[in-house]
Amino acid sequence: MSKTADTVVIGGGIIGAATGYYLAKMGHKVVLLERDFPCSGSTGRCIGGIRAQFTHDLSIRVMLESIRIFSKLGDELGQSVEWHQGGYLFLAFDLERKKAFLDAIRIQQGYGLNVEFISADKCGQIVPGLDQEGLVGGAYCPTDGQADPFKVTYGYLAGIKRLGGEVLVRTEVKQVRVRRGRVVSVVTDKGDEIFAPNILNAAGCWADDVGKMVGVEIPVKADRHESLVTESVERLFDPMLVDYRSDGCYFVQHIGTGHFIGCYTPVPLVPGLQIDSSDEFITEMPRRMVRLVPKLGGVKVLRQWAGSYGMSPDGSPLCGKTPVDGFYVASGMSGHGFMFGPAIGKLMAELIVSGEPSLPLDQFALDRDFSKAEAMK
Amino acid sequence: MSKKSSRARNATGVKRPASGVKRPVTTVCRCEEATEQEIRQAIRAGHHSLEEIKRVLRTGMGHCQGRGCLRIIARIVQEETGIPASEQKMPMPRPPLKPLPLGMLGRWQDDERGTMNDE
Ligand SMILES: Cc1cc2nc3c(=O)[nH]c(=O)nc-3n(C[C@H](O)[C@H](O)[C@H](O)COP(=O)(O)OP(=O)(O)OC[C@H]3O[C@@H](n4cnc5c(N)ncnc54)[C@H](O)[C@@H]3O)c2cc1C
Ligand code: FES
After folding, report:
1. pLDDT value of position B110
2. Do the chains contact at B101 and A298, CB–CB below 8 Å?
3. Shared domain check, A324 and A306
4. Ligand 2 test: best mutation among B12, B26, B29, most atoms within 8 Å of CB?
5. Which candidate, A364, A344, A355, places its Cα nearest to that of A156?
């Protein structure tokens, strides 16, 4: 069987779903292909945190746009996405970290972000029960927030269908055909061929495999991140708490459901696509959480799991055109793909439809200089 | 299961009321309060595996981690799609298999470290 589309989207995670939606909204006939089921990749393992506290110019701009979109997304998609503006509080336990936060805050305030460095006492007011021992203060932005990755992704996918596009699940792209430097079609594991002048590689951690189908190298490397969720309890505090110490962690209470959910970045990193759970995490993560907020000690853990971060060389996304005409990439979200998703989706759709995204994506280009890393990874 | 018997009983094993009687709401996943009707709707919307249904309705993500509901949902999937319950992939059991307090899990390591130091 063969069919045609204006754009074929490869990948049913947040990036493919959001881009597909904005493309369909701009009038493109979209066919989205997902080899397993939607959210089966990194998106279904994500904890839903959303923030604009970055240091990279384009990351801040994109996140300001994403937060604008999130705040109206429920209305746009006709269903709740559990968006709550609970803020993010990055904790500083030494003066060096405080200085790094102050530097970041100066940059962020330049974009109009409502962010400030607050005292340890103020942190304790915002997070009742926070153990202030050794705490110097924190970088607090009340307009950051949280949303439900499943609801957002499924909402976008439903939108694609409503706008006349197709979402084909359990369908894997096996081959991308190119003629004279231009994409022509994709061939699926079912032997179907879908012709389209534009093909978007939104295959997350697997974007390099898809890139190889047209000879384009996508520098994305997976590493494993673990997570746990607790039972649901009464609302204790609103912001995502981030502790950047080498044995720190980050966690948030889901405002809609009352569950605490969180992760930490292992030192050293655990490279590769394996997503098994470790015994170390299930004892170490609780220790770190209880150290920060001792009264969580009695809250029960329901389950742990793991997922992959698709990392780019400098920790910022990889988005834009490639050397093959009509072949686009949006990947390497480096642990922030959910929050970037709505704005990246909109900008990629603009790039594909008109060639001119409302924010230039050059700083996320595949062929950029990767030597300057994001300071608030 | 013959067509007839599958119509007479629903997957929860409860006899369906005679026609004309309003069917009561059957909660299948008690922890996350998902009803039989919601589950059937999700399956009809294309979510054919337990893993996918879990993603949309949170079934299996509650306090009992699916011990109370997954088998029943597998039978509903069988009724709706014909995929035998025995051939459906159960969501991976996630540790800890029983809910345990953060405080206790966190101390576990301290205790282990402690014993090691004592040696
Ligand atoms: C534990 C954890 C916590 C996280 N917390 C946050 C957070 O708080 N905030 C945040 O913003 N981000 C967070 N992230 C990161 C976030 O989950 C990812 O950045 C994001 O989901 C990436 O989305 P994606 O669409 O690029 O990739 P994916 O969701 O992985 O989607 C790619 C899809 O492509 C499909 N695919 C691959 N190859 C093919 C093919 N050949 N044909 C068809 N389909 C194919 C895959 O099956 C997959 O579904 C977290 C991640 C983890 C693991
Ligand atoms: S009954 Fe479904 S998770 Fe407990």
Report:
1. 61
2. yes
3. no
4. B29
5. A344
